[in-house]
Design goal:
Strand order of the largest sheet: 3-4-5-2-1-8-9
Radius of gyration: 27 Å
Oligomer: single chain
Number of strands: 13
CATH topology of the domain at 1-172: Beta Polymerase, domain 2
CATH superfamily of the domain at 1-172: Beta Polymerase, domain 2
Largest sheet: 7 strands, mixed
Structural class: alpha+beta
CATH architecture of the domain at 1-172: 2-Layer Sandwich
Distance between the termini: 76 Å
Shape: elongated
Number of helices: 21
């Protein structure tokens, strides 16, 4: 017991010293806030203390958390405003309040700082948005996703809080869900689990994997809302999409998808996804083309309407997706016709149908025998112009009107066909 206590004190002292170096002198500002508001408690939680302890235990290079998360027993907005009044030597300090969950998002010199009022959450049915009520920091930690993300440091008492063995799990490089309904309450946690597994090199625990596989076997589950059964509450769609964007912007999506595949839970995204060499090669292409990765993920779905709802696909994205599917079908059913197309015919075919650039990127990432023609149009053919413009043709005796437009197109197509390397 003494050894365990000594270890805890060791990490407590370590975090205390490291947090003195918080960006923008936030440590000092928070301590000043607490002196003036002695009824409040403030703790830092999540990625920042987690990554500091990972560095300490595994002697890894310094990690750079994407944001700072604070939880307060009191008003999140009052702390945010106090920080803004007292912060110095910053060019940008913005505050955005979200009243529903009593949270505030700050942008300080493009570093994200989240402040949340301590709360408890209850889910009326699987996947719905939770009902919340004010609570303590300790109870707030219960609603976190993994034990390693529930580690906190209380500035009010200069104390480390580790209620769920997060430090021990960091030592083992394991990801542990906090409770048995974690995935059921919020299925996007499974995406986060794969994200942290890829980012940190941690493995999911046996019990957590077992929970994930059992829950996802029944996905998408039905839920009761206003006496009507629905298969997918809107809140799930928003959270899944947001989590995917977080992964796309900050992590290796291919690695995350491969982990989900190894865990046999890709059904969370879509059961049609097959994470094989062809899929990963196409994913590499769509990333290289800076295309829409979410549309790439769902392009092979057998239930397009359902998958569009699942990922909150908007009207423009739906058109891109359906244009891609129709174009793919057209290419497959009329292959012989397209085999003889010169570059000018490809240019005419693509431009007259007014395809969105994202549709073309999806076709290129799909591969097949015609991908090079679409690639060349995307990066070469569409930028080529006629050697003569309208004014030049008028000087040569052409009458203004549609015929000039046709001639400019003809001359442009001639220039494009000069590049024919087939």
């Amino acid at each position: 017991m003494e050894n365990k206590s000594q270890n805890f004190n060791h990490y407590n002292d370590f975090l205390y010293k490291e947090l003195l170096n918080l960006p923008f002198d936030l440590n000092t500002i928070i301590k000043k806030f607490l002196e003036l508001n002695q009824e409040s408690r403030v703790a830092i939680v999540g990625g920042y203390p987690r990554d500091l302890i990972i560095q300490k235990i595994h002697e890894e290079k310094k990690l750079h958390p994407y944001d700072l998360d604070f939880v307060i027993e009191g008003s999140a907005l009052s702390l945010a405003r106090f920080i803004k009044r007292n912060i110095k030597k910053v060019e940008l300090c913005l505050i955005k309040e979200f009243e529903l969950y009593n949270t505030v998002e700050m942008n300080i010199n493009n570093i994200k700082v989240d402040i949340a009022s301590a709360r408890e959450e209850t889910y009326s049915s699987p996947g719905t948005n939770p009902k919340v009520k004010k609570s303590t920091i300790e109870n707030d930690l219960k609603r976190r996703d993994f034990s390693i993300n529930s580690i906190a440091f209380d500035f009010s008492k200069n104390e480390l809080i580790d209620l769920y063995g997060g430090i021990n799990h960091i030592k083992k490089k394991e990801l542990h869900l906090l409770h048995g309904n974690s995935i059921c309450d919020d299925p996007s946690r499974l995406l986060r689990c794969a994200k942290y597994s890829s980012r940190l090199g941690f493995d999911i625990s046996h019990d957590s994997l077992n929970q994930a596989q059992k829950i996802i076997a029944y996905w998408p589950w039905k839920t009761l809302k206003d006496k009507h059964i629905e298969k997918l509450p809107p809140g799930i769609s928003i959270r899944l999409r947001m989590e995917l964007f977080e992964i796309i912007n900050n992590d290796n999506l291919g690695s995350v998808l491969s982990i989900l595949n190894d865990w046999k839970v890709t059904k969370l995204l879509d059961e049609s996804i097959k994470v094989d060499k062809k899929f990963l090669r196409g994913l590499s292409w769509i990333k290289r083309l800076k295309g829409n990765l979410i549309l790439y993920l769902i392009k092979d779905s057998k239930s397009i309407e359902i998958i569009c709802k699942r990922f909150f696909i908007n009207t423009k994205e739906r058109k891109i997706l359906f244009d891609f599917l129709n174009l793919k079908k057209n290419l497959n059913t009329s292959t012989k016709e397209f085999l003889d197309f010169p570059p000018s015919s490809w240019t005419k075919f693509i431009e007259e149908q007014n395809f969105d650039i994202e549709t073309i990127k999806l076709i290129i990432s799909e591969g097949g025998i015609f991908w090079k023609s679409f690639f060349r149009w995307l990066y070469v053919y569409r930028f080529i112009k006629s050697q003569k413009d309208g004014e030049t043709l008028k000087k040569e005796g052409w009458e203004p009107g549609k015929e000039i437009g046709k001639e400019i197109k003809r001359l442009r197509y001639l220039e494009i066909d000069k590049l024919n390397r087939n």
